Amino acid sequence: MPLWMIHHTPGLISDEDKRELSARITDHYEKAGLPRFYVITIFNEIRPEDFHVGGEPTPVGLRVVIDHIARRAADKADRQRIARWINWLMTPFVEAHPDLHWEFHVDETSEDLWMINGIAPPPGGSDAEKAWAQANAVSAY
What is the reported pTM? Predict the structure, then answer.
């Protein structure tokens, strides 16, 4: 499961941009073989008074925290490829804000600590996971 927590100051990302960004994120993971419902994107608007960088309020800020659980990067080159993809994906949404402070990071969590609706997801690439992807829903396997 990729979980994207996007923390941003008000007015930075419109509702239309949120739909477009979350669809682009989901499309990418689907192309990588994940069921669409694995992908969760949460937008969290933070007042500038509550968004501090270096101990100071940030008038225009964006912080993206991503948890990868369903898959892990194989090596440093794979991690760098993922970071470049995230940077590429975010660029259209941030380039219109020249004073923006923005950053992201990705954590990789053990899939052993993950359940959906009380069911441990099937192994990556398995027939059961492919069935979940086709149905776009959790089911016993």
Answer: 0.93
